[in-house]
Amino acid sequence: MLVYLRLLKESLGFAMNALRNNKLRTLLSLLGVTIGIFSIIAVLAAVDSLDKKIKKDLSSLDKNTIYLMRFSFGPSEIPMWKKEQFPDVKYDEYEYLKSSMNNLDQMAYQFFVGRESLKFESGSVSDVNIVPVSHEFIEIQGLEFEKGRFYNESESNSGAPVIVLGYDITKSLFGESEPIGKNLRLYGQRFTVIGMLKKQGAGMFGDSNDTSAFIPVNFLRKLYGDNNDAMTPVILVKPEKGVDMDAFKAELAQKLRNYRGMKIDEIDNFFINVLSGFTDLLDGIISAMRGGGILISVFSFLVGGFGVANIMFVSVKERTNLIGIQKSLGAKNRFILFQFLFEAIILCVIGGAIGLLIVWLLSVLLTSVLDFEFVLSFWNILIGSGLSIIVGVISGILPAISASKLDPVEAIRTGM
Prior knowledge:
seven-stranded mixed beta sheet, 14 helices, 11 strands, 57% helix, 16% strand, elongated, membrane, Putative ABC transport system permease protein, ABC3_permease_C, cell membrane
């Protein structure tokens, strides 16, 4: 056992000396491996960061939350021309379903509307995400408050001119002054601020509660009516925990069909979009992004590996005379093999470490600049290190074998 340890130690020493004596060649070899490791780990870190951000943004919503509307979240077999004829969900349908559905936790009615500007005295904030929704929304999506509250059932049903502001909107309009009780203007109307949300951070889908404002949906219904093309209605449905989702969706569809007086042979003219299906779709997209990115990165990794193999063959050629002398003095084949194999592995490990360091520095920089948390996980570091060793072994094994099989007499004669 001690003999083998000494063999490994001496082989490692020879490999390190060879790398130190050929600095330029070592640097060029490191460059290829560094770029390869950087490409793969950067892709993995970026996709993992995106995945983590999406899951964080959706964590406040129950995955069984249903979006009942005329549009589908994903692809559908129904032709586009037919989907365009589907009617919007109505407020009276929301009231009917809320009062008749079994195993229902919460149900809310919401409009998807365009962005607007909020004005307070001489100041204003533009591009605000307006969320007209009924009071149950806070029970479906857990909003956290810095100050104030959400509007209650009475204010929601009457369409009271009250508003709840996101953190960034509040700071832009009021600075450090007290926002609760202040009046601002939206849609040409005066609203009273009753709540300010805690800071959430940037959202993956373009909208964040920080840049959103929540108002009672009935305010817009009174102002513009129910048949406004600029407003897309949706019914948010949150079933009770542990409910059979297939049975719940079937009951929901049947009750809405009955309310609309649809015939048995007619297809549903609405879509029951379950958030879990949307997250599964996102998971599929992220997996495809990860696979595509890795596939592209592998090519640059292969180039680095070929570069190391080429350098190792050159190194064997240059040191043929030395190999012959070592063998003539009693060096075993495995000593020569380990000597060159370690050289290739050390090259790749150092190159991989530099690549990982660059990814880490880049992740820290982008996190601070973009307000987006880039994550270099332990598993990605492990993958990068493992790949470096594997590439070192693969790139160095053939040159190492060819060096170990050299005839000592022929090696000395060739090197002279």
